[in-house]
């Protein structure tokens, strides 16, 4: 918990007093949020605080117009960075769903050829797929999970799953119905 509190304090300092250090902290948090944590939480905080800073700068009684303009520009720059991370995470999830549809189609072709779904995704290579793709191109938790729920080659339910927002929010595609579901 102290770790998150320290990150929040750094974030607040970076937004309150933009500087090279402030931008470095913000860039590091954007990078961590987008490529390591893959959650968008830190970017959401930065977006919230930077928009607040923009509003405060806009409606303040500061007589120094240059300072007021710099504060608004700094807040907008941070907000644009945060929105870029959030958009990148959405694109990452869209790529994951596209890749899962490709793997799902290969599983269906396997079933049409063999009468059942494969026991493991690796059985699809090389005849149906050139390789098993990662669900997402960036971040942690980027593997496609393959689950067969049933007894003795009877496919009651076969799922392809990926982690949408680590560590808990998962999306999965049911192969039989071709419908997406969420689990968190």
Percent range for helical residues?
55-70%
- Kindly provide the radius of gyration, computed on alpha-carbon positions and rounded to a whole number of angstroms: 22 Å
Strand content: 5-15%
| Main β sheet profile | 4 strands, antiparallel
Low-pLDDT regions: none
Helices and strands, with pairings:
Blueprint (H helix, E strand, L loop, with lengths): L1 H15 L3 H18 L3 H19 L5 H50 L30 E5 L7 E9 L3 E6 L4 E5 L1
Antiparallel strand pairs: 1-2, 2-3, 3-4
Helix pairs in contact: 1-2, 1-3, 2-3, 2-4, 3-4
Description:
The protein is α+β, with helices and mostly antiparallel strands and 184 residues long. The chain is 55% helix and 14% strand. It has helices at 2-16, 20-37, 41-59, 65-114; strands at 145-149, 157-165, 169-174, 179-183. A four-stranded antiparallel beta sheet has the order 1-2-3-4, covered by helices on one side. A hairpin with a 4-residue loop joins strand 3 (169-174) and strand 4.
């Amino acid at each position: 918990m102290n770790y998150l509190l320290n990150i929040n304090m750094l974030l607040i300092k970076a937004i309150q007093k933009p500087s090279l250090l402030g931008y470095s902290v913000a860039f590091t948090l954007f990078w961590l949020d987008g490529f390591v944590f893959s959650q968008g939480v830190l970017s959401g905080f930065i977006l919230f605080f930077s928009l607040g800073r923009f509003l405060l700068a806009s409606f303040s009684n500061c007589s120094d117009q240059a300072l007021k303009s710099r504060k608004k520009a700094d807040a907008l720059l941070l907000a644009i960075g945060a929105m870029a991370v959030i958009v990148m995470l959405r694109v990452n999830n869209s790529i994951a769903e596209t890749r899962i549809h490709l793997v799902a189609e290969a599983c269906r072709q396997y079933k049409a050829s063999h009468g059942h779904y494969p026991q493991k995704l690796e059985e699809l290579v090389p005849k149906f797929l050139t390789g098993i793709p990662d669900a997402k191109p960036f971040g942690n938790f980027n593997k496609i999970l393959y689950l067969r729920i049933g007894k003795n080659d009877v496919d009651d339910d076969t799922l392809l799953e990926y982690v949408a927002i680590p560590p808990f929010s998962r999306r999965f595609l049911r192969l039989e119905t071709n419908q997406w579901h969420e689990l968190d």
